[in-house]
Design a protein that fits this description.
Layout: E1 2-4, H1 20-29, E2 30-32, H2 36-72, H3 83-112, H4 118-144
Antiparallel strand pairs: 1-2
């Protein structure tokens, strides 16, 4: 959709001809309501932010269920401490949430300054995935517990 504030519309090519200067003046005066690049930028940014939000919510639900099921059998007589379970879930959910909020703020700031923002949402999405993976590794390390062989273990 192109809207123009130049009366009379674009100059038509006629044999007696309108000059390219007239055409350029008309094009310069016209504005586009939704330029294609801006629409694609906004849509991709919103989709990446939405996917990040859904991913964080799903991680929160899975984290709650995983912590509840892992700590149900955790007691001091077995040498089990639920702190690492909670820590892994907190890193995954909290990190993804904080990165998501920061990404949304930076993307909206880019919109206000009329800059491209899709790359901000993409970097935020990748960082949120990294936090979720890191939290999963911490949680998995807690599930392995003291019976696994590690550098500090004397078992």
């Amino acid at each position: 959709m192109t809207w123009s504030n130049v009366p009379g519309g674009p100059p038509q090519s006629a044999p007696s001809g309108s000059s390219s200067a007239q055409r350029a003046a008309w094009e310069q005066g016209g504005t586009t309501l939704f330029p294609a690049a801006k629409v694609a930028d906004r849509v991709s940014t919103v989709l990446l932010l939405a996917f990040g939000t859904v991913m964080t919510v799903v991680t929160a639900v899975v984290g709650i269920i995983a912590v509840a099921s892992a700590t149900a059998t955790c007691d001091a007589s077995r040498g089990c401490s639920p702190g690492a379970y909670f820590g892994g879930a907190a890193i995954a959910v909290g990190g993804a949430f904080v990165i998501g909020v920061a990404t949304a703020v930076l993307a909206i700031g880019a919109w206000v300054r009329r800059r491209s923002s899709w790359w901000i949402a993409a970097v935020g999405f990748v960082l949120a995935i990294a936090c979720i993976v890191w939290g999963g590794v911490v949680f998995a390390g807690a599930v392995d517990g003291p019976t696994s062989s590690s550098v500090g273990s004397t078992a």
